Amino acid sequence: MRSSAELHQESNSAIVTIELRDEELRPYLDQAVRKLRSQVRIPGFRKGHVPTSVLVARLGQEAVRREAVEDAVQENYEGVIVENGLDVIQSPNLRIVDGAEEGDVKVELDVALRPVVKVEGIGSIEIEVPRVELTNADVDTVIDSIREQMATLNEVERAAEEGDQVTFNVITVDGEREDVVTPYLTARLGKGEVSSEFEAALVGSQVGDKVPVATTGESESAEDGEAQPDTKSTVLEVLAVRELVLPELDAEFVGQVSEFSTVEELREDVRSSMTTRRVTEARSLFEQQLYQKVLELTEPKTVPEALLNSAYQQELHEFGHALDGSGISLRRYLEMSQQDENALAGQLSSKAAQSVLWDLALRAIAIDEAVSVEPAEVQAEIERLTASGAIESRPGGISPLQEFQVRTTLIKQKAYQRLANVVTIKDVDGNEVTLSQLGLDQLVEAETDVDAEPAAVPEQ
Q: Which residue ranges are recorded for the region named Disordered (predicted)?
C-alpha cells in the first residue's frame, strides 16, 4: 500500500491518495464477502450461507469491492495519516478513482486538517497578581482579628472612635416632628457595617448626641416637574459607645484558640496558612489572565465546526458529571443560576470555542518557539501513561496515532512552559513575581529530564 498527500493550506484540507495492489486487496475482499454474507438475506438461502457468486450477482461487484476498500482504508488509516504528517480533525470522505470493479485500486480521501492560527506578541504580556509575600503586619492583622473574636466590650464616656461599637437610633426629623424609624442599631465603626454617611456622623459623637446625617436634600418631584428641597432630615441618636478590650496575646490565649502552646507557633501557623491561600489565589489569577490574554492575541478566532462540536460534547459531559457529583438536578441548577437551557447551551458553546482556540494557540506557540521533544521523552511519557492505566498495555505497543497524540501533548506542555517563562508577572505593588513564588516550579525552564513528569497545561 502506497500513500501520498496533497495539501491545501488555504482551506485547511488535504487529498490523500492511497494505492492498493490487487493482491493487497484480496484478503479484504474475502473479509467483505464474509461480512456481507452475514448481513444480506436472499430468498432460498440461509443467512450466512449465500454463495459468493450469488452474493456478488445480487449486490454487484462494485459494491463488494467498495466494502473491501473501506475495510482496507479503515484498518490502515491511522498509519497513513501519521506517515503523511497530517493532523486530521474529522472522518474523511472516500472515493474510488480507479479499480472500482477489478485490478489495482486507487482511492482518494478528502480530509479536513486542524487550522494553524497566529499568536503574536506573547513577550509583551503582563499579568498582575495579588501580593504573595507576607509581612509581620499581615500576620498581626489576622491574629488581631482572632483576638477581636475573644474581646470584651466596655462602655466608655468619650467620643466614639474607629473600632468602637456604637448603639444608636435612626430618627427622621420633619420640622418639629421626630420619628424613630430604626431603633437600637449596633455597628462597629471602621468595619463597613454602616454607610459612609452614618460612619462620618457617628465618629466623634458621644452618648446622648443627636448627630445629623449628610443627605442630598432633594425630593423626587414637584408640581412643575423640578426637584424641590426636602424638608425631612435624618439624625442618629447615640445610645451607647463601647470599646473592644482585646485579650493579652500570651500562651493562655494561644491555648484557648488553637492547638499550639506558644505565640510563635501560632504566628508560624497563621503565616503558613496565609501564604498557601495567597499563593493559590495568585496562581489561579495568573492562569486565568494568561489564558484570556493569549486568546486575545490569537487570530483568527473562528474555529472549525468539527472541533467546536467535539469540544462542546466534552463540556456537556463534564458539566453533567459535575451536576451528578453535586446532587443538583438540571432544573434546580437552572433555577439557581436564573437561566434557561438555551442560555446554558450558549454558555457551554462559548466555553468550548475558547477551549479549541486555546489548544490551537498552544500549537501555534510551539511552532513559533521551535518547541520539540526527544524520542526518549515520548517513550518515557508512554511508559508513565501505561503504568498509570491511561494507555492500555498491548503486546505490539501503542498505535502510531497514539504515539503522535502523546508527542503532541508533550509539545503543547512545553509550549505552555515556554509561554509562562516569557510573560511578565508583577504584584499589585509593581514587584516582579517569579513562577516559583506562585508554586509553579515545574514550569521553570531548565535542562531536559526525560524521566521527569511533564508540567500539565491547566484546564480552563
A: 209-231
